[in-house]
Every structure is written in C-alpha cells, then in structure tokens.
Amino acid sequence: MNNLTRLTLFPLFCLLWVSCKGQTTITSDFFKPKNLEEIVKALSSDEMRGRSVFDSVAINQAAEYIISEFEKAGLQYFENLPSYSQEFLYNANDKDYRLRNIVGIIPGKTKPQEYILFSAHYDHIGIIKGEVTDSIANGADDNASGVTSIIQLARYFSAQQENARTLVFVAFTAEEVGGKGSAYFAENVDPSKIVAMFNLEMVGKVSKFGKNTAYITGFKYSDVGKIMQKNLEGTKYKLFPDPYPNQQLFFRSDNAPLAHKGVPAHTLCTVEIDKDNTYHQVTDEWPLLDTENMSGLLKFIVLSTKTIINGEDTPQRIKSK
C-alpha cells in the first residue's frame, strides 16, 4: 500500500472506528465528573439563594437554567405544553405563587404512547434565618444532584436516539412544601401511559453499601427493582432495597403522587439519611459531593433501565390502596 493510499484510507478508518465505538464514547463524554460538577455548582451556587419557591427571583433563575439545559439536550415539549414550563398557582399564607415544573421529552421510536419518567425536584428551602456566617441552604445534594443527573441522562439518551418508549424528563418544583409540583403533574397526565418512573433524590454521595451502589424506595410495591437488579447482573453495579424503612422515604418524595395512581414510581437514592448532617443545612454544598460516584450512578441507571426503555420489560402496576 503506497503512502497516498494510506493517507486516503486512514481518515475513513478513523470514522468507522468512532462509529463502532459510539456508545462507549457517548457514555464517557456525557458522564464525566467535570460535566456533572459544572451543573451541580451552578444550581447550588449562592446566586441561586437556595431555590425557595417563596423567592420568585431565585426559583425562576433555577427554572431558566434547567430550561437552557433541556434546550441544549434537544428535548421536545411534552404533550400539549407550549414550552418546557408546566405552570400552576400555589397559595400559601393568602398569597399566590406562580410556579412551574420543567418538562421535556425524547419521543419513543416504536412505543411513543408509553412513557418512562426520569425526575428530580429543583427547589430547596432558601435562606435559613439566624445563621450568621452563612445563611444560604444551597441544597447541593438535596436536590441539585438529582437535577444534574436527569440533565445528563437527557443529553445521553438524546444522543443515542434508541429508546422504544418515550422518555420524559421532569424537574419538579415545590417538593419541599409538600410535593405540590409532582402532585400537579400527576393530576394532569394519564397515569396509564406511564410505564415506570425513576425519581432521583439526593444521589451526590456514596451510599452505605459502597461505591457503584444505590437503593430504591418501595422495592416491595412493584417488580421495578427486580428488573433493574436483573439488568445489572454481571456488572460492578448493585441495587438494594431501601435500608431505611422507618424513614418512609417511598411516601416522602415526588414518586408518591403517581405511585398512588398505580404507576410503578420509585425513588433512587444514595444518601445515608440516618447519618447525613447536611440535610436542610447551610453545609449542603457542592464540594462535599462525589461527582465520580455520581458518574458511575448514571451508567448504573442506563444499564439497569435498559429493558424497560427498549420495551422488553413492562413493570407490574402498583395496586391501589
């Protein structure tokens, strides 16, 4: 082979090699710890003032940031919404607050009317009165970590474009005041369309089971956890049932409103909730998060949900009580 032929074929060989390696490249690029750090730092910065729903400037600044990330990911609008914003009024102390969930989708290729939800709440508790040196409850783990994760998953799946079912990404508001955002969403969607919901809550630290692990709330209420465990067999990742049953976590997060409607809706966590001393404190800041472990968790989610996303597995519904 002469030098001219080598020079001609070499670029073609490189292109083919990259195409064959596509999925590995996307995984490593999209889930790099530095990419996660960039988003979680922005959402939990002092400029966001703790993202309280009672601080209209701060909560809307956070919403606009998430919208910009959904746009970058190329997500489409959900159902009949004219934008990424699902707006509603929340009344507290005789005052109306205009709030919004942020919703975007990747349409399914073969089962577009069947939805898989990835969600996380973006509000937090704002300013803590009485604190002298630092009064901002930044909410890095609770729950900038979860929002960062669904943004990166949206980027990944949007680049893949292989999902049989429609993927819905929701950043809920008003979780900290009783789950008002997820309750509103649940009342304005047909629950029969939702095949499964994976809510991400406080996923910025290593779980009690070690690196590359997470736990799922409400394991006994559907077979979602068992399907995920099956998909993780032979990998370094492991999923465990919620080790804190006394905390009632299944009923305390944004999965609950849809679970009450029969949707196999669960929350994935890594936080050691019985030991975490930054929960709802001004010390919940991004330097305490383990973005390398978060990166592994995203790969964990991609692998564990694969057969649900591609239509191979359909989880059992949660029985109404």
Automatic annotation (TrEMBL):
One Pfam family per UniProt: Peptidase_M28
Source species, domain of life: Bacteria
Transmembrane portions of the chain: none
Ranges for domain Peptidase M28: 101-294
Alphabetized PROSITE patterns for the sequence: PROKAR_LIPOPROTEIN
PANTHER family membership: METALLOPEPTIDASE M28 FAMILY MEMBER, PEPTIDASE M28 DOMAIN-CONTAINING PROTEIN
Protein name according to UniProt: M20/M25/M40 family metallo-hydrolase
Organism: Pseudopedobacter beijingensis
